[in-house]
Amino acid sequence: MSSNVPISSSSFPAPTPQNTPLSHAPISSGMAMSRPTVPDIDEEGAEELQSMGTTGVQGAMLGMVQGKLAGLVGQSSGYVEGLPVQVRRQVEGLKGLQVKQTELQNQYKRECLELERKYLSLQKPLYARRHAIISGSAEATQDEIAAGEAASLKEDEEYEPITKLREDEEEEDVKGIPTFWSTALRNHPGLAELITERDAEALAYLKDVTLEYLDKEGGPYAGQPGFTITFHWDAAANPFFTNETLTKTYIYNEEVGYAGDFTYDRAVGSPIAWKEEQDLTREWEIKKQRNKNTNRTRLIRKSHPTPSFFNFFSPPVMPDEEALESGELEPEDIEEIEEKLEIDYQVGEDLKEKIIPRAIDYFTGKALEYELIDSDDEDDDEFEDLDEDEEGEFDEDSDSDEDVPTRRKGPPKRGAAAAGSGSNVDPQECKQQ
């Protein structure tokens, strides 16, 4: 029969990677551990703490603790360093395997990029045909119209083929599809927030948006992965600027990121040749000044930056390492630049992956069914879980949309978004009801 062995309350837990120290301190059970000492607080310090109040003191302590914890991020716990030599050598061997795996991931992503380049070339004749129909230089054939109607009927059983004019409609001599690209861009939730009413007037002269991957040989970015988006304009009729094309180039880093995808290195936009007093990225104001000596007054015009879609062609630039290390920029400034860069890269990616390939879906509004749009007045934070008794307030058998919570209603009816050149598309109108 085994004897009962008393377990001391001061016994230590088994070592784990989290609690194993780098060096084992010889702490004997009989050694009296000294209490931590706190420096005395003079009268001035005591008055300062008292003036801060309980909330202020707690905030100061929280900030101090967070600062200490932030300094520990990325530091080793000492577990790996404490392993036997032979085990540490095996760990280094696994790191070597990871290097080879990363090299294969780089090769895979580059081959995917080449595959995208190949299929973009195959789609170019279709894009050229699309441009001809939009511009009015050609009309859709009967086969193309029939294929489109078949697709519409497949998606909507109530769709009626276009065989005759509506009762309230008169036949007009219209070529192509006016303001096609303006409407498509403004039906994108992200771009809709960037496009102002003044921008919409200029976007009416946008004829086409095309995509090209960077050349492998030749050009300013030869051999670098990335792509260029080109906006084609009706320069002769455009009253805002003289450019026939505006470009935005996105350059990837040579190596893929930790998640296995290409990461953005930088973006470069082309300068805009604005006509006099037509710069949409700036606002002008007239100020009156008075001379202190002669008491005469004069009027001066000053400009200041203003939000505009055309700021897209002047992307933010991340400060270099020297500027970051020198502390010239405040953390808030760096965070603001990072947020702007993130938005800029997301817009470029959406143009490349969504808007250019599926421009017709953004023009008609169909693409909005697949966009994740959160209503401004219906945030998730405003909803709370219902008790079982409260859940009974909704009739599960009701067929009426009026009895269904807003978020459960079906997608909106599709149709060409009527976006005139002088008004901006309200994102609220594009949201799912």
From TrEMBL:
Q: Which SUPFAM superfamilies match?
A: NAP-like
Under Pfam families, the record lists: NAP (PF00956)
GO terms of biological process kind: nucleosome assembly
Compositional bias segments (type: Acidic residues): 372-403
Which spans does this entry mark as compositional bias, Low complexity? Answer: 1-11, 413-423
Ranges for the region named Disordered are 1-38, 372-433
Q: Which Gene Ontology terms of cellular component type are present?
A: nucleus
InterPro entries to which the protein is assigned, alphabetical: NAP-like_sf, NAP_family
What family does the entry list?
A: Belongs to the nucleosome assembly protein (NAP) family.
- The name under which this protein is listed is Nucleosome assembly protein
